[in-house]
Amino acid sequence: MEIPEKFATLGLTYDDVLLLPGYSDLAPSDIDTTSKLTREISLRVPLISAAMDTVTESRMAIAMARQGGIGVLHRNLSIEDQAYQVDLVKRTQTGIISNPVTIGPDATLEQLDKLAGEYRISGFPVVDVDRKLIGIITNRDLRFTPVAEWATTKVNEVMTSDDLITGPADISREEATKLLRQHKRERLPLVDADGRITGLITVKDFVKSEQFPDASKDGQGRLLVGAAIGYFGDAWERATTLIDAGVDVLVADTAHGNVRMLIDMVRRLKSDPATKNVQVIGGNVATKEGAQSFVDAGADAVKVGVGPGSICTTRVVTGVGVPQISAVYEASLACRPAGVPVIADGGLRYSGEIGKAIVAGADSVMLGSMLAGCEETPGDTVLINGKQFKAYRGMGSMGAMSSRGKKSFSKDRYFQAEVTDDDMIVPEGVEGQVAYKGSLATVAHQLTGGLHQTMFYVGARTVPELQDKGRFMRITSASLKESHPHDIQVTAEAPNYHL
Ligand code: XMP
Questions:
Q1: Are 351 and 36 in contact (CB under 8 A)?
Q2: What positions does the domain CBS occupy (predicted)?
Q3: Which of 21, 142, 253, 314 maximizes the CB count within 10 A of its CB?
Q4: Is position 310 annotated in a ligand binding site?
Q5: 372 CA distance to ligand 1 middle (Å)
Q6: Is 312 in the active site?
Q7: Site to substitute for ligand 1 among 47, 285, 310, 312, most atoms within 8 A of C-beta
Q8: Superfamily (CATH) of domain 5-92+215-483
Q9: Which residues lie with the beta carbon below 6 Å from any ligand 1 atom?
Q10: How much is the average pLDDT of 214-219?
Q11: Where in the chain is the domain with CATH 3.10.580.10?
């Protein structure tokens, strides 16, 4: 009897390696962090916010896309709620709103106020049953009606209907700016030849599009957004509903992606006429063989990571996993020859690890704990001993998988969809909190700034050049100690280095 070899090669992770400095004749302005998210989508900044219920809902997805990255909406939501989140992002465009939220003349001011809160907008075109523009109503029009009368006052009693300034559906940016300026208006509804609403331009959005030059946008100028799906139960309905809502990328993943039903799901998504045009990311895998399964199924990117996450206990609960640098490298052996981008998901703690992931073979990174403390993540900050924190939990934690009065939609990520009794759940993650970090813009600035510096130190102008030129040196625990501040009591934390 032949006993098979049991010990695969040594696995390495972020702390086991450092990048070698290389000759550099670059100016900071030469460096370009643009990278591929999927076969067809590039991002100016290769950062993705994790599909976790304490990290990415619409507010975070909007903030990520504005910074040049992308957010993946978590799926611990009903199909309708997740699709609604997609809709919120797609409407927070940076140019022309192609499908503006409208209101009818008979709606009450109370209904209008509710809609304004849901969509975080302050004015609406008013349309009749044929979607013909008959007025416009903004916060300003509400000011003279006491709140006590909002339940009984109708939109058509206070809207502005005289002297409406509109533009044609195909108006240019220059023409629109001229009209808005000339008439001192903040909103310009766009209408077709029959007076039906086709779009809306607001001054605020024009200013924003200048404010976020790196924003990740689709062909119509709307922000890009991803959403997570699984393979179990109504996953197909979830996928098609999200596509109808305008999602750009579907992330079909489970904690262990190399399973037949998930791979079949990716194959079906990429071949069915109703879904094949949407970009599909498959995951998570941690070996060359796992990555190859998704490449063969037609995935547009492969997500890598089994157990590296800060909140993950998969490796200790199951004894299974691959240290992340090795996992990314292994997956890239299958993906790079096929031109399929790789996403390094989980386990990153410092900006320097983005460059390490890229040199190992990744094209972008997905972050949970590094972003969970941002202002834009779901949930409130809590004050503990004078310091602010935000909750952060694994999607395989008891909190995310147990019902606790609310249906959990994330159990199938951990293959426990059919477990109905909370006591029978086997969690693969923990619940905790992370320090509050302020706005995503400041956090993203530090992360991209760190990646810029990595590229300068290695001498790589572009991300593909970093992948090719970058070389690792394996280090010892003594070297790791040397890498961090040592022999000093740190008295002030840096914005990119927390104790
Ligand atoms: P970081 O380290 O960025 O990791 O906080 C985020 C990634 O961790 C994965 N994830 C989990 N993995 N149990 C796991 O084993 C969990 O409960 C869990 N929740 C999230 C996921 O890939 C995420 O992007």
A1: no
A2: 96-152, 159-216
A3: 253
A4: yes
A5: 12
A6: yes
A7: 312
A8: Aldolase class I (3.20.20.70)
A9: 50, 52, 255, 284, 305, 307, 309-312, 314, 345-348, 366-370, 394-397, 428-429
A10: 93
A11: 97-211
Distance 73 CA to ligand 1 centre (A): 14
Q: Angle 173-182/203-211 helices, nearest 10 degrees?
A: 130
Confidence check: pLDDT of 94 > 70: no
Question: Does the pLDDT value for residue 172 go beyond 80?
Answer: no
Q: Per the residue annotation, which of 66, 312, 335, 374 is the catalytic one?
A: 312
Question: Are 75 and 82 spatial neighbours (Cβ–Cβ below 8 Å)?
Answer: yes
First-to-last alpha carbon distance for the chain, in angstroms, is 53
Residue 215 has pLDDT above 70, yes or no: yes
Residue 413 DSSP class: G
pLDDT of residue 141: 83
For residue 227, the CA-to-ligand 1 centroid distance in Å is 16
Consult the annotation and say whether 483 binds a ligand.
yes
Lowest mean pLDDT among 181-185, 235-239, 311-315, 360-364: 181-185
DSSP-derived letter for residue 80 is H
CA of 33 to the centre of ligand 1 (A): 25
Give the per-residue pLDDT at 93: 61
Residue 420 phi, psi dihedral angles, 5° rounding: -100, -25
Cβ atoms of 94 and 67 closer than 8 Å: no
Q: Is 347 annotated as a binding residue?
A: yes
**Catalytic member of 413, 461, 471, 474:** 413
The single-letter code of the amino acid at 498 is H
Q: What distance in Å separates the CA atoms of residue 276 and residue 270, rounded to the nearest whole number?
A: 4
User: Which residues in 8-23 are b (16+ Cβ under 10 Å) and which e?
Assistant: eeebbbbbbbbbeeee
Selected residue with higher pLDDT from 489 and 206:
489
pLDDT band at 5; cut points 50, 70, 90: confident
pLDDT at 406: 65
CA dist., res. 16 & res. 473, Å (int): 8
Cβ neighbourhood burial of 28 (10 Å; 0-12, 13-18, 19+) = exposed
Q: Does this model's pTM top 0.90?
A: no
Instruction: For residue 19, give the amino acid letter.
Output: L
Of residues 117, 122, 118, 170, the one with CA closest to residue 142: 122
> Is residue 432 a known part of a binding site?
no
- Are the C-beta atoms of residues 201 and 193 closer than 8 Å to each other? no
pLDDT per position as a tens digit, 388-410:
999 999 999 888 888 665 677 77
Q: Which atom of ligand 1 is nearest to the CA of 430?
A: 17
CATH 3.30.70.141 given to domain 97-211: no
* Residue 173 annotated as catalytic: no
